[in-house]
Structures are given as structure tokens and as C-alpha cells.
Hints:
This protein is an alpha/beta fold. It contains 13 helices and 13 strands.
Amino acid sequence: METGKRVRCRHAFEYLCVHANGDVVCSIVDGRGDFVLGNVGEQCLTDIRTGPRVRRLQQLVLSTHDDFCAAIGKRCPLKNVPCQGGDTSLGSLRFLAIEPTTACDLRCLACPVRDIAGDVTWRDAHKDGGIRFLAWDGLRRTKQHAADVVRRAIPVLAAAPPARRGPRAAMLLRGRIPRSRAGTLPIDVLKRIVTEAGPSVERVDLFNYGEPFLYADLLDALRHIRRVMPHAIVAVSTNGLQIREPIEDAIVAERLLDCVVFSIDGCDERSYGRYHIRGAFDVAFANLARLHRKAKATGLDVIWQYVVFRWNDRDDQLARAIEMAEAQGIPIMFDFARTWGRSRRSADEVRHLTPHLRPFTALPGEPRQGGW
Length: 372
Ligand code: SF4
């Protein structure tokens, strides 16, 4: 980040993200729920949106010049919009993310679902990711347990918001994700928040963590969104394994979605299975190809998203994925992991992927843009 340049995110100003337990946060970056703005089980979305927590969030975002977010005590890749500072005027709500459920059939290596589900331990870390992942995951879990012990022993530390701590103290004092983070949003609550958000919303992301196609009321939810927000773009991101033909047929026939992103990080079982624990490349890819075929000329975009890690970043693997996508006419978009297992390739080595980069994302070491 260029020194002296002030940046903010767009999410604290234009976006809300509703977790499956009802907590409202700024965006997917606060997947743990560290800075909760309110809960839709107890408050209406409008009250949360205009409440003091959102004002405080905006002040915290603007309190640092760089990409460190004082609200969650971490650097945030979405904090990249140049700004003057001081402006906390509340614009209209333009973007809404709803996480229908945290349930997921996968236990991808660096995904928070491993913590949220709470059914994998350090023993699984070794089985799933080998010795290096065990070392990373073991250290992370040990630090979080220690932070919980310290916070219990010294309550004043637990009470202090991340904003009061420096980046290092915030990291050291970050404990485990609470069990209450897991859940499924009741359909009546989901419908109510869509109605409360109103027709001015430009885009609804019906996903966050968890697999949306495991949400039993998915069609009911999508029909309600279409009714209330006929002009909004509606998108879902999926691991591609739980899509059933009757559901996809209804989605295509009724045009319930504008975009379905299949997250398939690899070009074969070997490169895919290293991260997507419990997944099956052939099943995910076959479902992607089938839905893409059915959606042709309907206005529903079906996209293959390939997140690049160090085990799927070889030139031949990237070329093979592009070739497979082109053979089926499927648009493919690459993104680069920033977590454990991130690719070590430089931006110049993979610059040829630029035409296939996900909009607003960046090559390794280069900043994202536009607040996305
Ligand atoms: S900077 Fe990032 S973490 Fe902080 S409020 Fe904005 S989107 Fe959320």
C-alpha cells in the first residue's frame, strides 16, 4: 500500500452481510463475526443499518490510513478505495449478502467452515493436509486456545475492542470462533430481511460460508428475492457437489438467479482434492458443465472460479483448466489465495492469466481494486 494514501472499504458504507445465526457484519472478511452490527433475530434490518454500530464501524475504518481495519484488528483486502477521510454519511444499502446456512459437505483446508462446524481437530489436520498443514493449523489452534484462557483470566482484555489493540495484540488475543456462529437462517427471517432491505438493493449474494444448495428452502428464498427486488442481480457461489436437477431446472426455468459461480480449484482430482477435502472433482465439474449447458441463452451466467494455490499453479495445470473450460464454452475466472497454501508465483509469471482474472481481483502481490 502506497504510504500516505488514505483508503477505506465500500462494505462499511454500502453493504451488509447476514450470517446464518442472524448476526450482521460488514462482509465476508468478518467471517468469524468479530464486529457484529446487530442480529436480525432481534432487530429489523433498517434499525441495524441506521444504528450506532454501523457509525462506529465507519469511524473505525476511517481511523487508519492503510488497509488495517481497526474494527476486526486485521488487514483487509477490501479496504482499497481511495478516500479523503472523515465522511461517514450513510448512503443507501446497495449490496446484501445472506448466508442461508453454515452447513457444508466439504472441509476445505483454510476455510473457516472447519472451525465453524467444529467437527475436525488437529488429528484431521494431519490426515487432510499433511505435516505442513498440521504445523500451521496446530499453531493457530493453540494460539486461539491460549487467547481464550487469557481473555477469561483477564476480563478487561476481552472487553477491549480490537480497535484499542495494536495489530499484534489483536492477532494474539483472537480466540476460537464461538459455537453460536453455526446455524441455518429460518426462511421467514430470510424473507423478512429481504423485504426490509427493499427494492433499492442492486445485488444479493445468497452465499457466504457454507453451501447454499444444502439450504432446504433455497427455491422459496430465491422466489421471494425476485419478487421483492426484481431489478437486483442475484448470485450464488457453490462447491458444485450438491446441485440436484429438479432444483437447477426450476432455477433455469424461472430465471431465479443471474449468476452461479462454481468454486473448483484444480484441473483434476489430484490438484483439486489437495484443498477441497471430501470433494470429488469429476462430480463438481460434471454438474458445472450440465448447468452451463442448460443455462445457455437464458441470461443465467454459469462461471468456473479457480482459486490458485501452490499445488494447482503450474503452467500446465492452468492451461489444462482453460482448455477444459473453452471446450465447453464455460467462462473461467482465476483468483489468488491469500491464506495458507498461497501460490508463490510472482505476478509476472502468471500475468498471462489477466484476461481470465476475476473482476477487481489482482495478481499475487498486487492490490485489489474498487473495494471488491
Ligand atoms: S475494512 Fe474490511 S473488515 Fe473492515 S469494515 Fe471494511 S470490509 Fe469489513
